[in-house]
Design goal:
The complex is a heterodimer of chains A (390) and B (159). Chain A has 390 residues and is of the alpha/beta class. Chain A contains 13 helices and twelve strands. Chain B folds into two domains: 38 residues; 85 residues, Lrp/AsnC effector binding domain/regulation of amino acid metabolism (RAM) domain (Alpha-Beta Plaits), CATH 3.30.70. Chain B starts with a helix and ends in a 14-residue tail after the last strand. The chains are: A alpha/beta (390), B alpha+beta (159).
Chain lengths: 390, 159
């Protein structure tokens, strides 16, 4: 008998369902639950930016833009990268505007990978990296990171996982879900490793502005990095523009040129309104970004202090807006902890396993929420932990 | 220090312990810093922002533009010194432009404010003229938006 063919491709069928998605469905059934499970700012986009978007619509700017994005915005991104991080990219050929950092990651991988190419992915990591590598026809190769090293990827672990078919590494600092940042030494060693093995680097730096222990260390800025690094950035986190869907990629002209080609075929261009609003964001909102960063920092201190006080070892996250405490002392698995905390105290956190198997034994707590919510969630979580530890 | 002051300016009821937790300092450090700031007059006082309308206490505000002929040798300060003493005067500013002093007067009604201007403000020595404007509606005061807005919701769990 002829085998009936599946309607969904084998590749897509085999993609694991996101651990986030599964948990979302659980939490959705409890509308009164306090959620520390979001991955976006609680702040609304600053008014100046919204106002610029409204003005753009009122002016009737509703047509396509050039594929790579409006000239003005690419210019602003170039100036921004230079003044904030000392990075120099030509807006004409080395910068493109994308539909969120998400699209940039997707097309970057599809641009650089041949079928079967390996992609080293330090984990725990943002949920999209392994599936995007697979959808691009590549092999996602997990590289564990360890709390003992503050979740900074170690060259030995990269070397152990690297094989002859490895083509690229996807890395993100500051990190979702751990909140880890990388230091100069680590960044240099990392780039040196990539150089030795002639690997391309996808450096997802969307959380660059949310750094709490001094200046952001950009992997793209390290000596030897520029010619082999695709820098990913976005407007979602620092400017609270998640729903606008706007990001950018910067890198060598040959790679960016090819990404623009792909982008032109898939989305044509990023949303026009969002692009025009983003020009205002880069020109006039440094103060707003700093205000939000300061507030995240206050919340960070509170949440990390409370997690440690209740007996959950929490390494100090110095970037992004996540705390990644160890739940080992409770004797529960990440899934058990998250499910029971939700059922018993109506507090939602995301099991660390949603971000990779080495997230087992951890949970992700997002502090992009009001101080009142954080304090209440911590009180309930302390009660739960107290009960479980007996 | 600025961070401590910003937190207190936003919520005067935060305890030293709460401020310490948010700023990564010790409680003693914060308490001692606050005491110094109070003594130095950097923290002038603590107050509560009340929505009087909700308890049925009505206030009317008049913004009065006052033109003054300044006193020789002391400028506007002598006139200002007399005006600030009135409890009805909520705020007083020296301004650039077509008038000199902006006086904000608080009263129970428009008549009360108007009478105050006519009987106490306008007749003052060196006051040349006054122009009274009444506040009809307050939208935002001292950084607080008074208009109610719907809560913005987010999805409960996202990557």
């Amino acid at each position: 008998m002829a085998k009936v063919r599946q309607r969904v491709s084998q590749l897509v069928h085999s993609l694991p369902q996101s651990g986030i998605r599964r948990f979302f469905e659980l939490v959705e059934k409890m509308p009164d639950a306090i959620s520390l499970g979001v991955g976006e700012p609680d702040f609304v986009t600053p008014w100046r930016i919204r106002e610029a978007g409204i003005a753009s619509l009122e002016s009737g700017h509703t047509h396509y833009t050039p594929n790579a994005g409006i000239q003005e915005l690419r210019g602003e991104v170039s100036r921004y990268l230079d003044r904030r991080f000392g990075l120099s990219y030509d807006p004409q050929h080395e910068i493109m505007i994308t539909v969120g950092g998400s699209e940039a990651i997707d097309i970057a991988l599809r641009t650089i990978l041949e079928p079967g190419d390996g992609v080293l992915i330090p984990q725990p990591c943002f949920v999209a990296y392994p599936p995007c590598a697979m959808m691009a026809g590549g092999r996602a190769i997990s590289v564990p990171t360890w709390v003992e090293h503050d979740f900074r990827v170690q060259v030995e672990d990269l070397a152990a996982a690297c094989d002859g078919g490895t083509r690229a590494i996807v890395v993100s600092y500051p990190n979702n879900p751990t909140g880890a940042t990388i230091d100069e030494e680590g960044a240099l060693a990392f780039v040196e490793f990539a150089r030795e093995r002639d690997l391309l680097i996808l450096s997802d730096e969307v959380y660059a502005e949310l750094t709490y222990n001094g200046e952001h260390v950009s992997i793209a800025a390290q000596p030897g990095a520029r010619e082999r690094t695709i820098l990913i950035g976005g407007f979602s986190k620092a400017w609270a523009m998640t729903g606008w869907r706007l990001g950018f990629a910067a890198g060598p002209a040959d790679i960016i040129g090819a990404m623009i080609k792909m982008h032109a075929y898939t989305v044509m261009c990023s949303p026009t309104t969002a692009q025009e609003a983003a020009v205002e964001a880069l020109r006039a909102c440094d103060g707003e970004v700093e205000r939000m960063r300061r507030e995240y920092n206050q919340r960070r201190r509170v949440i990390v202090g409370r997690l440690n006080a209740m007996g959950l070892d929490c390494f100090e996250p110095k970037g992004a807006f996540y705390a990644f405490p160890s739940i080992a002392r409770t004797g529960l698995t990440s899934d058990e902890f998250a499910e029971r905390l939700l059922a018993e105290e109506q507090v939602a956190v995301v099991p660390g396993t949603a971000f990779g198997s080495c997230g087992e034994g951890f949970v992700r707590c997002c502090y992009a929420t009001s101080m009142e919510v954080i304090e209440e969630a911590m009180a309930r979580m302390a009660r739960f932990v107290g009960r479980v530890r007996g | 220090m600025e961070e401590v002051l910003q937190l207190l300016a936003d919520d005067a009821r935060l305890t030293a312990a709460q401020i310490a937790e948010r700023t990564g300092r010790t409680e003693d450090e914060v308490a001692s810093a606050i005491e110094k700031l109070e003594k130095a007059g950097v923290i002038r006082r603590y107050k509560t922002v009340v929505d009087w309308g909700k308890v049925g206490v009505e206030h009317v505000y008049g913004f009065i533009e006052v033109r003054v002929s300044p006193e020789r040798g002391v400028g506007f300060d002598a006139v200002a010194e007399r005006i600030v003493q009135f409890p009805e005067v909520h705020s007083l500013y020296l301004m650039s432009g077509t008038y000199d002093l902006l006086v904000v007067v608080e009263g129970k009604g428009m008549r009360e404010v108007a009478f105050f201007v006519a009987e106490k403000l306008a007749p003052l020595d060196h006051v040349l003229s006054t122009a009274t404007h009444f506040v009809l509606k307050r939208y935002k005061v001292d950084g607080d938006v008074l208009v109610e807005r719907a809560e913005v919701k987010r999805l409960p769990v996202t990557p």
